[in-house]
Design goal:
single chain, 5-stranded parallel sheet, alpha/beta, Rossmann fold
Length: 154
């Protein structure tokens, strides 16, 4: 088991999906933590440490990003482009798991081309969705090593 906190940033505009993710993380071990933003634009603000997210003690750089693809304002594609090409170099290493209702081959391929580390189709049904989130938390929080990015001091 890892000895440090693993922080997940979830960018999700659907309130039901966000509630399910938050609920599952409340039941997760204490070393798995979650911060939520409502769309890709807010995720960008969080990652840049702007506005509300300026306090890095309260809003540290995440270890893993759970990214919804189809969001208003600034979608998952735009966020991935920014993260992999315009973000500070060390942030570009942060693993991104795209979670989408789309199983369209072009969406999947485009996300991998843009640098997604994983693409997960959201299952239908509350229980299956919660199981999927739990599995992601266990894998990325307990079994996978993530890069250390500056400002991740906890």
């Amino acid at each position: 088991m890892k000895s440090h906190v693993t922080l997940f940033l979830v960018a999700e505009d659907d309130p039901h999906d966000a509630e399910s993710i938050e609920s599952e993380f409340k039941n997760a071990p204490n070393h798995l933590q979650l911060r939520r933003v409502h769309d890709g634009g807010e995720a960008l603000e969080y990652m840049e440490g702007n506005g509300l997210y300026a306090d890095r003690r309260k809003y540290p750089v995440p270890d893993v990003i759970l990214l919804d693809l189809k969001m208003p304002r600034f979608d998952g594609y735009n966020f991935l482009k920014w993260l992999r090409h315009k973000a500070p170099e060390k942030m570009r290493l942060i693993p991104v798991i795209v979670m989408s209702t789309s199983s369209d081959e072009s969406d999947i391929n485009n996300c991998y081309k843009l640098g997604a580390n994983s693409y997960v189709v959201k299952p239908f049904g509350w229980t299956k969705f919660q199981e999927r989130v739990k599995e992601l938390g266990i894998y990325w929080g307990e079994h996978s090593e993530t890069p250390i990015v500056p400002d991740q001091a906890r």
